[in-house]
Amino acid sequence: MKKDKIIYWISTILIFLFEGVMPALTSQTEMAKEGIRHLGYPGYFGIALTMFKVAGSIILVVPKLPSWLKKFAYAGFVYDFVFASISHTVIDGVGVGTVFPFVVLAVLGVSYFYYQKLQAVVSAK
Asked: Looking at the whole model, is its pTM more than 0.85?
């Protein structure tokens, strides 16, 4: 079980850093704003997306929150990554912007798998 906790926390912290900390620190840079404009989204979409990413990543790392809330956060990130890939593919064609969201989605999948595994152990007690 110790190995499972380590894998869970490493993958979850990576998601927290990539989807919570990084957007919070960079969302108002000109490069980030231009990225949102380039994909055809209005500026306020970037602000809303950042708020949801930060909230979702905090939900994932706070241990004692309800399971249903964490599952909503996981689901929200799945939508985020899938639609990021679609947006980049439609605008720029197949490339790094198509593949990279699925790499992060795989890390999220590891986090979710081990979250479920750890929850099963807690429920069995």
From this structure: yes
